[in-house]
Specification:
Elements (H helix, E strand, L loop, with lengths): L8 H16 L19 H15 L3 H13 L3 H13 L7 H13 L3 H13 L7 H20 L3 H11 L9 H13 L3 H13 L4 H13 L5 H11 L17 H11 L5 H16 L7 H8 L24 H14 L3 H13 L3 H13 L7 H13 L3 H13 L7 H20 L3 H13 L7 H13 L3 H13 L3 H13 L3 H13 L8 H11 L5 H17 L1
Helix pairs in contact: 1-20, 1-22, 1-23, 1-24, 2-3, 3-4, 4-5, 5-6, 6-7, 6-8, 7-8, 8-9, 9-10, 10-11, 11-12, 12-13, 12-14, 13-14, 14-15, 15-21, 16-17, 17-18, 18-19, 19-20, 20-21, 21-22, 22-23, 23-24, 24-25, 25-26, 26-27, 26-28, 27-28
């Protein structure tokens, strides 16, 4: 395939994942909580497995707990299915797998298990392990609300946390911050580590007493919450001076020994990369005799937590993001709904309206429309401009794409150091979004691990994240997996992935299939009619380079007739 195909932003993303392919070859505390017996079809054997699993989980023997939950879940125990889903979602005793988490949570929900029903609503609402569907989200949450409220009032900490999320999410109800805080506090006081972290972050974000924030974050960390140690490390590394724009009351002095302790704790969890980077930066700062938490070191690795404006953001200071909770958010939701129905023109109009009001996610979506020619004529320059706007407002997916563009010289003068800077800045946020089931974030993270940009090169993690994206229908990742299968001589699997990508409207995959069937590649038989079919589809690509290659293929076929 001609290298000229990879000239626009959409193709830059595709090429990024293709390079990676080539190189790659809800909460479970139950103590003192009333049982949720809704819809639980169990047997004596499955009940025994469940009880053993709960006992092992309480002792933090998550691997044993997982095995017992799995055994009971496979026998149809609804609570065990719920616990198994939670284990997959939180990587407790098993590798994180949001798709399997969703599948098991859905099984429990369909049996009438109330907490699973509300949780599956949040899965749909956030697009976790499944395509985002607000209608389906509202259906499940409304169906479960009364039962979950009853459990929460009886002291079930999981139910309390779900109600806090419910009132803070605007899914099926008008947001009520007071009620969200009330239920979060109840869950936190009952020992729920997620709620404890939420309370700590609330004190930070609202500029309240930092000591109170540290108290709750420390509780969360000591109870096993996995992000809290990293946040505590950042607090003690630089004190409040560098955190959250310096708005927090000055009550914590920098303490590098305490910071190092918490960063080392974080090395054992999903934020190990961030913690490792922090420790390396701390060691380098010590060698250079720098004071606590040099600004650029913090900003480059922890932009998500550290609110220090970039110098080049000043040009955008007059652009207010007034979309939160307003018409911008509504426009974005309407755009996403239209896009899901493949009504790209309508989606583009909604994304554009929301983007112009400052919605950061809409700016990213609008950039992708321009990059892919969906709903609008392909425009590389506008694509990059909108992507850069979104990136400057800390959208990790946009930051990663901007980095790819600088590295590949797509729509901008090639500048590898600048590209690596943008990608390094994106990694932390990218991982969080990917872990919530975002296919694009998973794809970009897989590309980063495959290329070793922003993170240490890791072929296994690259494959994991690219496969997660491909399983959710991300076409560029499906093509990347096709290439991986080719390298492993799994020709049938390679063709299957190319077919999936082509059916998902990947013009690059359609072109590849045209070549495969034209020449009888990858253990397939030559099939001129099939080759012609795929070339014709690829020829409709808004990318002139892809269309040119496909039309050339059609001419060759005509000559062979």
């Amino acid at each position: 395939m001609s290298s000229s195909i990879f000239r626009n932003m959409s193709a830059a993303i595709f090429a990024f994942l293709l390079t990676a392919a080539v190189f790659t070859g809800c909460d479970s505390k139950t103590e003192n909580a009333p049982a949720d017996k809704s819809g639980n079809a169990n047997t004596t054997e499955s009940t025994g497995e469940l009880e053993q699993g709960l006992a092992a989980y309480k002792q933090k023997d998550y691997k044993t707990a997982f095995e017992h939950f799995k055994a009971a879940a496979e026998q149809g125990d609804a609570e065990a299915q719920y616990r198994l889903a939670d284990s997959y979602a939180k990587a407790k005793g098993v590798d994180r797998d949001l798709k399997k988490g969703f599948e098991w949570m859905k099984k429990a929900a369909e049996q009438g298990y109330a907490k699973a029903q509300m949780c599956i609503g949040f899965y749909y609402g956030g697009g976790v392990g499944v395509r985002k569907d607000t209608v389906e989200a509202e259906k499940w949450i409304k169906q479960s609300f009364d039962a979950v409220l009853k459990l929460a009032e009886q002291g079930d900490v999981e139910a309390q946390l779900y109600l806090a999320s419910y009132y803070g999410s605007e899914i099926g109800v008008e947001m009520d911050e007071k009620k969200a805080l009330e239920w979060n506090r109840k869950a936190a006081e009952n020992g729920n580590e997620q709620a404890q972290k939420n309370i700590g972050l609330l004190y930070l974000s609202e500029g309240k007493n930092l000591k109170e924030a540290v108290k709750w974050l420390r509780m969360a960390a000591e109870n096993g919450e996995q992000e809290a140690p990293l946040i505590l490390g950042l607090i003690y590394w630089g004190g409040d001076k560098y955190l959250f724009g310096g708005i927090v009351e000055s009550t914590i002095a920098p303490d590098w020994n305490e910071a190092e302790k918490w960063f080392r704790t974080a090395l054992n969890g999903p934020f190990a990369v961030e913690a490792k980077n922090a420790l390396a930066n701390m060691e380098e700062a010590r060698k250079q005799g720098k004071g606590p938490a040099a600004l650029e070191e913090l900003k480059s690795d922890f932009g998500e937590w550290v609110n220090i404006p970039d110098d080049d953001d000043e040009e955008d200071d007059d652009e207010e993001d007034d979309s939160e909770g307003g018409t911008g958010k509504i426009e974005l939701e309407q755009g996403l709904a239209a896009y899901q129905q493949k009504d790209y023109k309508t989606a583009f109009e909604h994304f554009k309206a929301a983007a112009e009001q400052g919605d950061v996610e809409a700016q990213y979506k609008l950039a992708m429309c321009y990059a892919e020619g969906k709903g609008v004529e392909l425009d590389k320059a506008k694509s990059f401009d909108w992507m850069l706007k979104s990136a400057k407002h800390d959208n990790p997916k946009a930051q990663c794409v901007v980095g790819m563009c600088y590295i590949g010289g797509n729509e901008v003068t090639k500048d590898e150091p600048e590209g690596k800077k943008w990608i390094a800045k994106s990694i932390s946020g990218l991982r969080k979004v990917a872990e919530r089931g975002d296919a694009e974030a998973s794809a970009y993270l897989g590309g980063c691990y495959g290329d070793g940009i922003g993170v240490e090169k890791d072929q296994e993690l690259s494959l994991k994240w690219i496969r997660a994206a491909a399983d959710q229908g991300h076409s560029a990742s499906q093509v990347a997996l096709g290439v991986m299968m080719m390298k492993e001589k799994k020709m049938k699997d390679a063709v299957d992935w190319f077919l999936k990508a082509a059916e998902n409207e990947s013009h690059e995959a359609q072109f590849i299939l045209g070549r495969i069937y034209e020449n009888g590649l990858l253990d397939t038989k030559k099939d001129i009619a099939e080759a012609e079919k795929w070339y014709k589809l690829a020829a409709a690509s808004p990318d002139p380079d892809v269309a040119k290659e496909a039309n050339a293929g059609l001419k060759r076929l005509e000559q062979k007739k």
